[in-house]
Amino acid sequence: MFDICQWINEPETWLAEPERLRVITDRHSDFWRQTHDGAERHSGHFFGARVTSGFTAQVRVAARCKNQGDHAGLMVRIDEQQWLRAGIGYFDDTPQLLSVLTQGRSDLAVGAALGEREEVWLRVTLTQGSLRVQASLDGQRWPLLRLASLPAAAEYRVGPVCGTPERGGMEVAFSEFSLQAPLQRGLTDLS
Question: Taken in order 172, 120, 33, 16, is the CA torsion positive or negative?
C-alpha cells in the first residue's frame, strides 16, 4: 500500500518494503504552527497518499519516543495550515497518545500514557467534514482519541508521519497501512 504515497520532507534514511515502511528521523523534524511559542515548523516526515473523498486510513506504528516532541503516527493534511497528526508522542517525560489539530494554529490534545509500550494502531476516518481518530493497543478494540472538524477540500493527503524536533535518529516502523472507503460505525462502536 505504501506505493501510492509520496514524501513531504523525505528523510535521509528510509526504506519502503511491500508491507513495511522504515524511517530514521532527521534532526529537527516537526510539524507545528504558532501556538504558545510562535514557532512554525514544517520539516516533519510525511508519506501521504492523495484522496479526493471520505476515507478510513489505518496503520500500525512502532517507535521509541524518548525526547520532548518525538512523535510517530498518522497525518491528514489539506495544506501547510490545515492538518491533523495523531499517534505516539513524548510529552511530560513519558510516551503518550497525542493528537495535534492545526487550523492556522496548532493545538495539542494529550491522551493516555503508554508506559513502556512502543507500538499502537491508529485509525482516522474522514466523512462529511468530521474527523474521527481512534487508537488501539491490540488492533482489535478502537477507543476514540479525538473527534474534530476538518474543512472540505478537493484533495487530502493521508499517511504515516514522524518527527523529532529536538534530535534526530529515532527509528520508526509503519506496517499494516490501509486506505478504504469510510467505515460507517457509531461513535461508541469500538470495533
Answer: positive
